[in-house]
Structures are given as structure tokens and as C-alpha cells.
Amino acid sequence: MNKDVPVLRVQDLTKHFPAGRGKVVHAVDNVSFQIPRGKTFGLVGESGCGKSTCARTIIRIYEPTGGKVYLGHDDISILSQKELLPHRQRMQMIFQDPYASLNARMTVHDIIAEPLRAHGVFASRQEESERVNDMLAQVGLNREHASRYAHEFSGGQRQRVGIARALIIHPELVICDEPISALDVSIQAQIVNMLRKFQQEQALTYLFIAHDLSMVRYVSDEVGVMYLGQLVETCAADEIYATPLHPYTQGLLAAIPIPDPKVAREKRAAGLEGDLPSPIDPPSGCRFHTRCPHATERCKAEVPSLKDVGAGHCVACHLIND
Ligand code: SF4
After folding, report:
1. Best substitution site from 232, 248, 286 to test ligand 1's pocket, by max atoms within 8 Å of Cβ?
2. For residue 269, how many other CB atoms are within 10 A of its CB?
3. How far, in Å, from the CA of 216 to the mean position of ligand 1?
């Protein structure tokens, strides 16, 4: 693939679900971003803000309501499920809950080999076994684990199996949907380091989803902050921590737990107030206006567009854009 063509380009992606009585859930609205080869885009926001729906719409678990998804040069949003099949091995997903996402009735060998079989990669079982055993070793497990079942493993080991299954087919794009949120803190760093090692070795491209900014800090090149189905800020990962501009991003950062109680108290005062509104009939104008300490009448009436305020730092906020 041409190195200048992003591995993933998402353009105005929209996903609505019918909610009965003519109402619509605005799960994802006009989301656009791209990820160059070998890079990580961290997608961040509170639970229910549409991150996972966005990911599932990208890989066509959900059909998009509107917008485009390009995998390299290919617009995969217009393909039928049958036409999509040859592209499926190019994008794989690692899920949040490694227990729920692994079939309890299959051995670890069969779970990891499943993508190889689905795409007819090897003709012989021996080649398949060699590849599975090699993959087990790469994720820090061994061939004795192959004949066991997922419930015999710890959460961290199960996530290693999930990573092996996702990477065995050499995808270009890996969507990591909160892959460490369900794991003990002591295990999280091991899994993140493993994902980074694979990325460096294979120039993998990651879409890394997390509900708090601290989790994406060490893995992302660029970060997108999502609020109620829309991107409200995107920029280089370092910059989002050094110069967060959108009031929602500032609130998310203030909500990150910090060990010093005095600093924590001061930060909490600047944190987010209230709950995420319903994505059915979301607030008018800026969707964040019901929680924003700086909201004006204009914010209630006019939708702010995502504008570049310099060096690729994009923000959707009247306060900043003016
Ligand atoms: Fe707050 Fe208005 Fe900016 Fe929205 S547009 S984040 S309500 S100041």
C-alpha cells in the first residue's frame, strides 16, 4: 500500500438507530478522522458517547446511516457484506471484555485459528497449528495453553488470546475497543506494551477506544474527543494534555484521578457536572451546552463546527473559534 494513503479515513460517518414513535438515537453524527499507517488514533469520551458504535460502524457490524469509510483506497462503506469479505481480514477488533468475546465452547487453538479458517489461509492443519503456536508464543502464552478453554484463564491471559486471534491474520487496522478497561491495573501496562510492540514490529494501525484520557496517553499519536455522537476536539496526543481547548476535554482531564488529595480537590472543582444527555433528541446547538460552564444563548442555537485553530488542532466551540 502507498505509505501516503491513510490506512483508515472516516468521512462524515453517521449512525442513527430507530427508537420507536418516530424518534431516532443519534449515536454517531458526521464523524471524520484519518489514521496514517503505523499510527494510533485514540478515541475518547464518556460511556454512551458513541465511540464503540463508531468503531462497529467502521467495520460494518452496523450499517452506516451516512458518510464514507475508506480502508486504504477502498470505500468499504458502499460494499455489500459479500463484497466486504475479502477486506474483512484487513481489519480486526480487540474487545473490552475478553471473557464475553471468546467462545466458551471452543479451545484456545480453535479461537485463535478461526480467522485463518474463515479466510482459507492454510490448506493443512499442521501449518495452521504451527502458526497458532507461534502466535501463542508471541503473546506470552505457550502451546500447552492451546487445548484449554477461555474460562481456565485469567482476564489478562484471555486478552492475550483475543490479541492473538486479532493479529494472526496480519490485519492492517486493529480496532482496540477499551482493551484494558476490564483488567487489573497491574496487567494493563503489560497489555499496552504488547500492543505497542506488535505495532512497532508490524507497522500496525490502531484505533484505540477508551473512556478516559489517561488510558490513551501513552499509546496515541493523535486523539479525538467525542461527546454525544460528535467529535468536539482532535489534535496530537501531547497537545491534548498540554493545551486542551474544548471545555468538555478540560472536564475529562480534570476527572482523571490523581494521587495528591489537595491537587485532586482543586481539579474536581473544575470537573464535569451532570450526566450525559440522551442521544434521542440531543440538545440543540452545541450538544455540550447543558453542562458547559461557558454556555451562552448562541451555544443553545448554533451548532459549532470542528475548525482547525492551528497546527491541525481542531475544536468545535464558539468560544474558541471566535
Ligand atoms: Fe461551551 Fe458554547 Fe463552546 Fe459548546 S460552544 S463548548 S456550550 S462555550
Report:
1. 286
2. 8
3. 24
- List residues near ligand 1 (CB under 6 A): 246-247, 286, 288-289, 292, 294-295, 299, 304, 317-319
Residue 221 alpha carbon to ligand 1 centre in Å: 26
255 lies in a domain?
yes
Ligand 1 atom nearest the C-alpha of 298 is 2
Residues 119 and 203 in one domain: no
Alpha helices in the chain (DSSP H): 51-58, 81-88, 108-118, 125-138, 155-167, 185-202, 213-216, 237-242, 247-254, 261-269, 297-301, 318-321
Query: Which of 288, 297, 306, 315 is the best mutation target for the ligand 1 pocket, counting ligand atoms within 8 Å of the beta carbon and taking the most?
Result: 288
Closest CA to 204 of 6, 94, 9, 39: 39
pLDDT by residue for the chain (322 residues), tens digit each? 566 899 999 999 999 999 988 899 999 999 999 999 999 999 999 989 999 999 999 999 999 999 999 999 999 999 999 999 989 999 999 988 777 778 888 999 999 999 999 888 877 889 999 999 999 999 999 989 999 998 899 899 999 999 999 999 999 999 999 988 888 888 888 999 999 999 999 999 999 999 878 878 789 999 999 999 999 999 999 999 999 999 999 999 987 766 555 555 454 445 688 888 999 989 999 999 999 999 999 999 999 999 999 989 999 999 998 8
Distance 302 CA to ligand 1 centre (A): 10
Whichever domain contains 241, its CATH number is 3.40.50.300
For residue 286, which atom of ligand 1 is closest to its CA?
4
Cα distances (Å, whole numbers) of residue 237 to 72, 94, 205, 234, 243? 23, 22, 15, 9, 10
Number of structural domains the chain divides into: 2
- pTM for the model: 0.92
Residues 149 and 184 placed together within one structural domain of the fold: no
Q: Residue 2 falls within a domain, yes or no?
A: no
Range of the domain at 301: 8-90+171-321
- Residue 98 placed within a domain: no
Amino acid, res. 181: S
Distance of CA 299 from the midpoint of ligand 1 (Å): 6
How much distance in Å is there from the Cα of 296 to the middle of ligand 1?
A: 7
Cell of 286: 452545541
Question: Does 68 reside within a domain?
Answer: yes
